[in-house]
Each structure stands twice: as structure tokens, then as C-alpha cells.
Amino acid sequence: MLKTILSITGKPGLFKIVTNGKNMLLVEDIISGKRFPAHSRDKIVSLGDITMYTETEDVPLGEIFESAKKVYDAKPVDVKAMQAAGTLRDEFAKVLPDYDRDRVYDGDIRKFFSWYNLLLQAGITDFVAAEEKEATAEAAD
Q1: According to the model, what pLDDT value does residue 132 have?
Q2: Residue 134 has pLDDT above 70, yes or no
Q3: Residue 108 to residue 106: CA distance in whole angstroms
Q4: pLDDT digits (tens, 9 = 90+) for 100-132
Q5: At what angle do helices 106-121 and 88-95 cross, to 10 degrees?
Q6: Overall average pLDDT of the 18-24 stretch
Q7: Per-residue pLDDT reduced to its tens digit, 48-63
Q8: Cα–Cα dist 9/50, whole Å
């Protein structure tokens, strides 16, 4: 699911791929539904390709979103309140306990929670594909 959700540098929010053309993608804002072209010169990253550093290995963003969904009961998170209270890193440690504190910055954590809230607002709650869930369960056994 996260393979079709994009982040575009310089544009706030997250976007869903509608179709692709020559040297561009037609994308749609996941909240407003507004469509526009994203050209090859734009820095476009699929959320399915993003990982976060931990002390042992990099963890895909989808797995971290699933963990946040369990920790926060699939409810939005107030990032500004966490930052004001100075608990941003503590709250993220509840989601990903062994994250690399040297290589994961506060901005990364704020962006993570912001994306998590946007995905929930758009009604997207399946962050890991069914095949990936089965493979993770088999690996745990």
C-alpha cells in the first residue's frame, strides 16, 4: 500500500499515484483529492522505500507505522504538544524502542508522526502488505 503513497520535496502532505506519463506522474493529494503533475525534476520518494535507522538494522516505514497504530490505538498524535513538552523522542521510543538516537533526528520523528496523522486522516490504516505480514510472522517463528 505504501508503495503508491509519495512524498514530494517542496510540497506539503502526501500524494497517491493516479497514473504516469512521459517524464511525469499524475498525483493526487490524499486529503484534498487535488490532482497535479509531478515531473521528473521533482524529488519524489515512495513511503514504501523509506526505512529508519535502528541499532541493529534498518526498519521499513510500514512496520513502524503498524507499531504506532498499536501504540496509539490508530488515533492521531499531537506532535506539537509532544515537542513542546520535550517528549518527542520518548514517544517515538514507544513506537520504535531501538531507534538509533544519533542518526534519527527530531525532524525525522516530527515528519514520521505528521505522515502517520495524514495517513489516518485519509483512512489508510493498512501500512504493511498482507504478504509482508505473513513473512514477518514466519520469521518470528
Answers
A1: 53
A2: no
A3: 5
A4: 999 999 999 999 999 999 999 999 988 887 545
A5: 60
A6: 87
A7: 999 999 999 999 999 9
A8: 14
Q: What are phi and psi of 45, to 5 degrees?
A: -130, 130
Q: How many residues does the chain have?
A: 141
Write the DSSP string, 60-93: EHHHHHHHHHHHTTT----HHHHHHHT-HHHHHH
Residue 18's CB: how many other CB atoms inside 10 A?
13
List own/partner pairs for 88-97 with CB under 8 A and 24 or more apart: 95/64, 95/67, 95/68, 95/71, 96/52, 96/54, 96/59, 96/64, 96/67
Residue 74: C-alpha distances to residues 71, 117, 118, 123, 126 (Å):
8, 9, 12, 10, 11
